[in-house]
Design brief:
27% of the residues lie in helices and 25% in strands. The protein is an alpha/beta fold. It is globular and about 65 Å long. Bound molecules: zinc ion (2 copies).
Length: 369
């Protein structure tokens, strides 16, 4: 099968023929319909998010189950699935405690380059390749852990379902699961790419009264207004701190989300948030970066600063629910798909993403997605 391989950090991906071993007893083979291109993939190309090479990148996919191992019970061939990059064990303290995105088995091994079992199923000319984020969706087929397969309704486009595998769940869950945005509240979102736009949609659905999108790209600001933002500002033209202060009668926002992955924006998010408000960090800053916050205010203002990994999601509950909301017209997720690509054009997709042209670029496979 064809797959996009990162042979070494800082190189272009090469689309080559690779071999995929059959699924083990607890594994599933899925034929990809669509795979989104995420900034995390690019950060692995550059080395900012290290993961072993040579590897097949991609971690935001959806497709149709093609074959299952002997012990698999939760999916069968023909099922439509979203691929989940947090294949939780279901038994550790985090899984038991309702925080499966932080699973003791899966979370520490996310970038180890194997499936959750430690196995590898990909080879190129007889040499093993690493997986990426338990998935490797820049390929026509994947073999993944059963726990990575989230069954979904068959009547939603798999291009949209693919985005639920990373960006949508990350942004939606940060708002709904982590910040628990309340009706009437104010929400400021820094960075409105695929994750930030999903957060804007979720804040609107949650009844937020004022939703401020902050992004330098004019077309992203315009799109954010179309999907639920009430204000959209260019941080290079408008002073964000005074804008939010004026908008909220001097109080500050109830919730701020940092979805751009820039450490310095976390401090700005902290500044624009009211006392006892919540700052949710969603974008992953570069490896080794630190965030500086004003020490006295951290105590006196009782603000909550928290991360949110994968939208703090419970994938089997949240992903089908998100797609139900899409199907009923309440989350316009199709607006996130800016452009589609063939697998051979994956590097063009990265170029377009880096040029700021995409909410999401999506690789499609075949003509049935
Ligand atoms: Zn991602
Ligand atoms: Zn677990």
């Amino acid at each position: 099968m064809r797959a996009a391989v990162l042979f070494r950090e800082r190189e272009r991906l090469q689309v080559v023929d690779v071999d995929l071993a059959p699924p083990g007893p607890n594994e599933v083979r899925v034929r990809l319909a669509a795979s989104g291109i995420c900034a995390s993939d690019w950060h692995t190309v550059t080395g900012a998010i290290p993961s072993p090479t040579p590897s097949v990148l991609g971690h935001e996919g959806a497709g149709i189950v093609d074959a299952v191992g002997d012990a698999v019970r939760s999916v069968a061939p023909g099922d439509h699935v979203v691929l989940c990059w947090a294949p939780n064990c279901g038994r550790c303290r985090y899984c038991e405690g309702g925080r499966p995105n932080l699973c003791s088995v899966a979370a520490p091994a996310l970038l180890a380059g194997t499936l959750a079992s430690g196995a590898r199923r990909l080879t190129y000319r007889g040499q093993p390749l690493y997986h990426y984020s338990f998935l490797s969706t820049f390929a026509e087929l994947v073999v993944v852990d059963e726990a990575s397969c989230i069954p979904i309704r068959a009547d939603v486009p798999l291009t949209v379902a693919a985005l639920v595998g990373c960006a949508v769940t990350t942004g939606y869950g940060a708002v709904v699961n982590r910040a628990k945005v309340e009706p009437g509240s104010t929400v400021v979102v820094f960075g409105v790419g695929g994750v930030g736009l999903s957060a804007v949609m979720a804040a609107s659905l949650s009844g937020a009264q004022q939703i401020v999108a902050v992004d330098p790209a004019p077309w992203k600001r315009e799109l954010s207004l179309q999907v639920g933002a009430t204000h959209a500002i260019d941080p290079h033209q408008v002073d964000v701190e005074s804008f939010v202060r004026d908008l909220t009668g001097g109080e500050g926002t109830d919730v701020a989300l940092e979805a751009a992955g820039r450490a310095e924006l976390v401090a700005l998010a902290f500044t624009v948030t009211r006392r006892a408000g919540t700052i949710v960090c969603v974008g992953v800053p570069s490896s080794g970066s630190t965030v500086a916050l004003p020490g006295p205010d951290l105590v006196r203002h009782e603000k909550i600063v928290t991360g949110s990994l994968y939208g703090s999601c419970r994938p089997r509950a949240d992903m089908p629910r998100i797609l139900d909301l899409y199907a009923s017209g309440r989350l316009p997720l199709d607006r996130l798909v800016t452009r589609t690509y063939q697998l051979d054009d994956v590097n063009t997709g990265f170029d377009d993403m880096l040029a700021g042209q995409l909410a999401r670029g999506v690789i499609t496979f075949g003509d049935w997605s």
